[in-house]
Amino acid sequence: MDFEQHRAYGTRPNQFGTRRNPLTNETISLDQIRELVAESGYEIVESDDENRVLRIRDLDSGMILTTVLQESVLFNTVQLVNVERSTLSTEVLWTLLDGTNGISTSSFQLYEGPKGVAITLNNFAKLQAMGADDKDDILSCLEFLVVDAWAARDLLGGLLD
Fold first, then answer.
1. Which of 2, 3, 6, 7 is closest to 115 using CA atoms?
2. What is the pTM assigned to this prediction?
3. What are phi and psi of 69, to 5 degrees?
4. For position 160, what pLDDT does the model report?
């Protein structure tokens, strides 16, 4: 995946080609993650095995989440909104970075692209061997991301109008 693809997915480039967990020598596969999220009530919208990317829809909210598997870390992101760069006032940026803004399980990131600046929420899960704990971590991260996205949209709603 080149830098532009990473930026489009809201992930960071990784120079390592392996997906093997150095602590357990286990290989985490995108198929395992795909199966878990599908069984848990998410819809697989798009699957890019070459770049280890899944785009999934939370059926309750309709939100599209992107997950990217890099080695043994699953990065999750949801794009909240695209805005013009000039919209990002000091007040908006302060609101995003404020530790008391109510968004405690995800972090905001900004990505400049052809449609303006994408404001995204992101979190990740460090996977060990795809046991019960890892499965719980993945599903918790996805659920937290959806809940945080609702809160973030409320938080930013009045600031971006």
1. 7
2. 0.81
3. -95, 120
4. 73
Helix, strand, coil percent values for the chain (each to nearest 5): 35, 30, 35
97: left (phi over 0), alpha (psi -120 to 50) or beta: alpha
Burial letters 122-139, b for 16+ CB under 10 A, else e: bbbbebeebeeebbebbb
Two tokens, residue 81: 């909104």
Number of domains forming the structure of the chain: 1
Domain that holds residue 94: 3-157
- Name the helix (H) or strand (E) containing 156: helix 132-157
The amino acid at 92: V
Q: Which residue has the tokens 């830098």?
A: 3
Q: How far apart are CA 142 and CA 148, in angstroms?
A: 10
> Which residues does the chain have with pLDDT short of 70?
1-26, 161
C-beta contacts of 91-100 below 8 A and 24+ residues apart: 91/159, 92/156, 92/159, 92/160, 95/155, 95/156, 95/159, 96/156
CATH number for the domain that contains residue 135? 3.30.1460.10
